[in-house]
Amino acid sequence: MALDLIAGPAAAIGGASGPASGGLRTEFPFVLPRGYVDDAGTLHREGAMRLATARDEILPLRDPRVRENEAYLTVILLSRVVVRLGGLGQVTPQIVEGMFASDLAFLQDLYRRVNQEGTSQAAVTCPACSHAFTVEIGGAAPGGS
Fold first, then answer.
1. Which of 54, 61, 108, 122 gives 20 to 30 Å between its CA and that of 80?
2. Which helix (DSSP H) or strand (DSSP E) does residue 133 occupy?
3. For the chain, first and last CA: distance in Å?
4. Residue 74 burial (CB < 10 Å; 0-12/13-18/19+)?
5. Are 110 and 52 in contact (CB under 8 A)?
6. For position 44, what pLDDT does the model report?
7. Domains of the chain, residue spans
8. Sheet holding 132-136, edge to edge
9. CB 30, CB 46: distance < 8 Å
């Protein structure tokens, strides 16, 4: 998976479509490692996740599927905060259920990063030259480098 290099802390400020003066970034684009394949066989990889609200984390706790199986909380929570996935109209719990495990893990990590750490960036160090830099974990467009 290709990763985009970003400019640094200023990249964390801005609106859904990029940095903006004085705005809060509330939407984070991503590219799934494998992608969701719908019933027609179409692959959906590019999407966006918004910041979660308290309501997003509280309301699923009332869902009978979560009461029966606590692990289902992740499915409902992700279906609430993933606002776009390819050409799909709405991301439902059934779509999240149909994702590959690697894509589900990717979204869980992205959710944790943007909602708990406040960024979709990760600090990394090049193993060859030891240069430290920041990468956007949301990924790049397919074919990017």
1. 122
2. strand 132-136
3. 8
4. middle
5. no
6. 98
7. 4-136
8. 4-5, 132-136, 121-125
9. yes
